[in-house]
Write a structure and sequence with these properties.
This protein is of the alpha/beta class. It has four helices and five strands; from the N terminus they run H-E-E-H-E-H-E-H-E. The longest helix is centred in the N-terminal third of the chain and has 13 residues.
């Protein structure tokens, strides 16, 4: 008889997104993303961090102060990293992400062909960026679904 306490697909893919978020070195917000095709195969993963070749010791992680002295002009979000890491078409794919996408990420998600977003948190839902994101995603016919976070626990040796 097979075991009955295995995790469902949504929990599995959100768990991969959360595990990816653990790679982020951002001291305040760690975001992970996992893109899955129609065959339930992972076709892209990403997390928020600096572009390849930029040292995360030489660029700021601050979230307040002069714009050029904060992380905001330099960090690549998890969603575009996952899109860029994909090696196949993302038409009709599903994006699992730990934080609801901002307006800049929404544009890339729509352009890439992703048709569904499953997200764990939407802590910035009152921000104009997220309101614009929600508007674009809904108008583009991207399905949105919130699910509880999956707690990934790792023991460090």
């Amino acid at each position: 008889m097979k075991r009955k306490d295995y995790i469902e697909w949504d929990a599995y893919f959100m768990g991969v997104a959360e595990l990816s978020a653990m790679r982020s070195k951002d001291p305040n917000t760690q975001v992970g993303a996992c893109i899955v095709n129609q065959k339930k195969r992972i076709v892209g993963i990403g997390y928020n961090g600096f572009p390849i070749g930029l040292s995360d010791d030489d660029y700021p992680w601050e979230s307040e102060g002069n714009f050029l002295n904060t992380k905001y002009p330099y960090v690549v979000h998890a969603e575009p990293n996952a899109i860029l890491n994909s090696t196949v078409s993302l038409d009709d794919a599903t994006l699992y992400v730990t934080l609801f996408p901002c307006h800049e990420c929404a544009k890339l998600i729509i352009q890439s062909g992703i048709r569904e977003i499953v997200y764990a948190a939407n802590k910035y839902q009152e921000e104009e960026s997220v309101k614009a994101s929600m508007r674009m995603l809904q108008d583009a016919g991207v399905s949105l679904r919130q699910m509880p976070a999956v707690r990934v626990v790792l023991e460090h040796a």
